[in-house]
Amino acid sequence: MRLCRFFICLSLIGLYFSVAEGVIGVNWGTMAIRPLPPKIVVQMLLDNGIQKVKLFDAAENTMKALAGSNIEVMIAIPNNMLAIMNDYDSAKHWVDTNISRYMFEGVNIKYVAVGNEPFLAAYNGSFINTTFPALQNIQNAINEAGFGSTIKATVPLNADVYNSPASNPVPSAGRFRADISDIMDQMVHFFKQNNASFTVNIYPFLSLYANKDFPFDYAFFEGTSKPIVDNGIQYTNVFDANFDTLVSALKAAGVPDLPIIIGEVGWPTDGDINGNIGYAERFYNGLLPRLARKQGTPLRPNVDIDVYLFGLIDEDAKSIDPGNFERHWGIFRYDGQPKFPMDLSGQEPQSNLLVAAKNVKYLPQKWCVFNPEADNLDQLSNNINYACTFSDCTALGYGSSCNGLDTNGNASYAFNMYFQAQGQNELSCGFQGLGMVTTQNQSTDKCNFFIQIDSPANYLTSTRPIFVMFSFILLILVMF
């Protein structure tokens, strides 16, 4: 049976070589309270000519929706599974379950992401000893399964795995971080041995966010009055400088021609004073045309760069530890509506603008808002905090789209986000008498009061309404 599946998979692979290198891909994350159904997302990808997608797992409903679409897929092994993948039998089982199976079912798998930014400095070395053995086992298991020539394992890494010394902060001085240099050396040579690629996530926005003295224009592509000069090369944007720092690090490690994939690059549209639609549009209007021109970078000129934009859709259940902007990276809203005009082809003038998701079902036109007749205002702060703990209130933060609301507006926004997350359960708009349901849209020019999509909840937001109802029923049963 395995032999039969193997030859069928080979025939499927032959159909999928039409996806060209350099075509723009997207990251499809699913950390949403009420995510769009995968079939709707796949159709949206097809309608927008998106031929490559990068996932953060290999969830069955997502993979089945991608089957037969011819969309090239990068599936992923989460960081918390890296230690398990250090056992070769476990790696073989994972490959059989998540590659052989889905290739047989018609999913066009091209890459496996082994972990996600596992060497991030914030992880304090948690995955340093497990990542490379997991990478080896997964690629070897892929090879053993017969897919080694077409499916490659890679490790999406944060750009903090390399740097230039403070004494010479230029791209040509790029080297891998001292604490992981030995592992990185082994890893890049393993990539070369298997004809695989180095995957890196580059975020100009984060450079701006992390350093208040960072030159603002340097995050974009129109040029700057203070470029970095390196051996006669002028670097006018941080994207090129960051990329070429990696190129120099690879050269120093003895693999100067190793292919590079940009696993994530993008700009958030809310949640920070510099995270807004205007700046996101400016960033993409600079990035996409240069990719279309195959401009490359000073150290790798005139080449296609394999790029995955981050991200496809907003994810309102993501952790906001890095910042409130984390839930607003999508080029589409939570419901599959484009946020701004955008042509992924990078052609100028723009002609093939983003197309919205089709057949999206919404909850009824109802909102939960602050009740102006309420008199227990001493409970307002606690109830707002509760609502925001179990929903997404990041748009209320400083510099964000709903930052201009008054106190009652803040309460209404928070109450409504919780109400929508709970599927408009009437019990979820109580807030000790402070909330009320209305059919009047409370949105302003800048602040959108959402109506959630009608889909099953993906992440538990709170059990309080259910608990209250259960307690009430139990009380009645006890009394009678």
Characteristic key phrases:
alpha/beta; two-stranded antiparallel sheet; 32% helix; cell membrane; plant defense; single chain; globular; disordered C terminus; disordered N terminus; nine-stranded parallel beta sheet; 480 residues; Methane Monooxygenase Hydroxylase, Chain G, domain 1; glucan endo-1,3-beta-D-glucosidase activity; 2 domains; TIM Barrel
Secondary structure topology:
Blueprint lengths: L1 H14 L9 E3 L10 H10 L4 E3 L5 H7 L5 E6 L10 H17 L3 E7 L16 H14 L7 E3 L1 E3 L3 E2 L11 E2 L4 H13 L4 E4 L2 H7 L17 E3 L2 E3 L2 H15 L7 E6 L11 H16 L3 E2 L2 E2 L4 E4 L57 E4 L9 H10 L17 H15 L13 E4 L25 H16 L1
Parallel strand pairs: 1-2, 1-15, 2-3, 3-4, 4-5, 6-9, 9-12, 12-15
Antiparallel strand pairs: 7-8, 10-11, 13-14, 16-17
Membrane topology: Lipid-anchor; GPI-anchor
InterPro entries: GH (IPR017853), Glyco_hydro_17 (IPR000490), Glyco_hydro_17_plant (IPR044965), X8 (IPR012946)
Protein name: glucan endo-1,3-beta-D-glucosidase
Helix content: 25-40%
Low-confidence stretches: 1-18, 460-480
Q: Could you name the CATH class of the largest domain? A: Alpha Beta
CATH topology of the largest domain: TIM Barrel
User: What's the count of strands?
Assistant: 17
Beta-strand percentage? 5-15%
Number of domains: 2
- The largest beta-sheet arranges its strands as 5-4-3-2-1-15-12-9-6
Terminus-to-terminus distance: 62 Å
Can you write the helix and strand succession as a string? HEHEHEHEHEEEEHEHEEHEHEEEEHHEH
